[in-house]
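Table S4 entry, Cytosolic endo-beta-N-acetylglucosaminidase.
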Amino acid sequence: MEGGVCNVCRNIHSPPVRPPTDPTREIQPLKTWDEFVKWQEPETALHPAVVEVTRLMPRSPSLSASTLRTLLCHDMKGGYIDDRFYEGNSNVNAYRFYHWSGIDTFVYFSHHSVTIPPPAWINAAHSHGVKVLGTLITECGNTEAFCDTLLTNEESVSMGVSQLIAIAKYHGFEGWLINIENIVQPNKVELLIDFVKQLRKGMKKVCEEAEVLWYDSVTVEGKLEWQNELNELNRAFYEASDGIFLNYTWTDRHLEKSWKEAGGKEGAGKVYVGIDVFGRNFYEGGKFNTWKALEKIRSYGLSAAIFAPGWTHECDTGLSFEDSEAKMWSDLHPFLTYHGPGQLPVATSFCQGYGHAIYDEGKMVKNGKWHNLSKQRLQPILWQEGRGVKLNLVTSDAYKGGGSLGIVVMIPKEIRLFVCGLKWKESLLVSVWYKWEGPVVPFTLYLNLHSTTNTSLPIRTVELRCDGFVEARKEGDQPSKDNEVESNQTSKKTDQLNKTVDVKRKTEEGKHDVVQTKKKRTSKCDVSLVVSREENGWTRRSFTVGEEEGWEVCEIGVRLSAPSILLLGYITLDNFTPTSSDYHPGEVANLLRSNVTQL
């Protein structure tokens, strides 16, 4: 990584002195060729976490050849810090990442020869449909001997390919970033290109989602000369791999050249332009100006590789880590493409993989600080912070895991939580667990649907009214204690709030914070409230939504029609299958009647 990045990074990120590692408790890289070739799949797993990684979640919308991608390259103090432990640790302040919906590929990076991603990062990424790559790196003066041995002959290349494939398959990640940062003898360059080709081909055989990327470093002449663009000196590696990760010291001229060399729109998605968040010899200085670099890259129709996003955690930004993350990613938001769950079931407690206790069904089952990214659950889109709303993880109370999603709204607000592509049959069961920390106001969980057969049709909205509404009843109907949503007192408050909402909606029309990609229409599919009860201080509402053929859920969000504070503890969506363990007596009957009983 030319421009001082690697050398500076190595000085800043000098790994701390550690006691001897215990392979049954933590994962480590392979530092030498000898370690690498001797690696073999153990007969007995070192730890269940190694072989029980989360499978890669199907994602929607899917990527096309021309989609502009965003890669995230982890680089945290040399790697393998708190994240190396299979079962996590007690450091609640350890680095975590939770903006997965805007990321396509995650690279775990270190300066060791073979960097194997820790299971915790694989699990967190996979649960959001994000592919994970390890890193093969060789550098002048450190691991150059590894490269020399790898390129000894065809047999050594074949050995290297086989070992990398076996390691990725065993640990459950999708591929490798190849970073050769040392001079290669000209007569060995063809072997190096063949190594990349073989690795890509071999990975595709064992993993449909496999990806092998090349870092812009050594050239086809064997020289260590960072190009900062796609050109004739690195094209052979670009063509042998699934894409190229360009160095960071680019200019407009480099970006324009890369677009042309890639053949325009169809090939430019494979060109990942490097972004150094630390801002070392980099466009506009990185840091909180990182968005300017991403804006520039997107203006040339290229993908991006964000390196060292942990700057918000490592450095004194003048803000807390959470506020630094909010500022960084809200600024990056306009230039990201969002993705989400592509199949049912969907469930999330919003836990970010840390907490001060562990909760189950609203009860604290274990007290004490903890951090384990394997326990992170599906994260919402958080860029909406600062536009009349504050979203944050609340660790002092939860329904499941270590935290709940706190939503503070100062104005009537529609908040898109997830983008998705969810088809269902007959009845979709949607459940939400929530708790008020402010006044009870009209609260709706909404599902936006789009047509799978005619994209020109307007978005349809299914509104699941959870709280703060007074539903009209037929004359003579008696309210049910279980399903009564609000009291007369709340009704009066709601009437007053609705007057305020109508006024504020007029002032909010057209503002950026209300997300509407198409004109919306209210869906005509059957909706029924089938479960309404309190569970350990949390309110549960479960709805069934009748099938609407040719339509799928494309967005999930919430709407609060007046200022308040709400905790979201748990959300689930699945095809309806009532079981006695999920519902009280009588609720199963409600569920079975739900296709004819409308709310």
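DSSP finds 15 helices and 26 strands in the chain.
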